[in-house]
Request: fold
Amino acid sequence: MSDREEENLREHTFDGIREYDNPMPAWWTRTFWATFWFAILYVGYFHSKVGRDVVDEYDADMQAFYDKQTADLLALGEVDEPMLGTFIKNKNAMSEALAQFTKVCATCHKADATGDIGPNLTDAHWLGGNTLMDLYTVIKDGRNKMPPWGKKLRPDVVMKLAAYVGTLRGTNLPGKAPEGKPLAVPPVPEAKRD
Ligand code: HEC
Reply:
């Protein structure tokens, strides 16, 4: 028995048997402590709301899905009622549209869309049609004193604005006196307001 092994022998004997102090290998203890600290950090991060929990992850995944769907639809280049409807479900698209509306449309329609130079977009009366496609066409091409925004704004922004105005239909906020003819709100295909 080497000196080192002798050193590592414990003092006590039992029935002539002596115990050898055989520590766990370093890789094992290191792994143990790594998992120990990992668990503490993990609980601290995920259970104290510092980090993203599964609900946040889910929301982020859904948002990524809607963004991708929007990009795919734009790539197809075909604008129709269901395609515009998908923007309504996309929170990013709706907040982008709201920001644009406040910036460029509010001058004539007011920030809450209750009308000023342009008509109230929340009432039940419409100068033209009120399907998402009708809204898209008037925003893109303009009509009378309504400027053609298709010349100034990105195509996807015009689509998002049409979808946004679509969410205002039937909200009936008091504002400028009704103009045009009364129309029921057409159903939004494949997408409902959240
Ligand atoms: C310079 C003023 C002006 C601005 C800015 C403006 N509009 Fe208009 N808008 C009008 C007028 C005026 C009409 C009525 C057009 C008509 O006589 O048919 C109108 C009509 C509309 C209609 C159709 C309403 C209906 O009853 O058929 C929609 C939808 C609309 N605007 C959306 C928008 C959006 C979205 C924007 C921002 C991108 C915008 N407008 C910016 C003046 C404006």
Summary: The first strand starts at residue 9 and ends at 14. The chain has two domains: 3-47, 54-182. The chain has a mean pLDDT of 89.
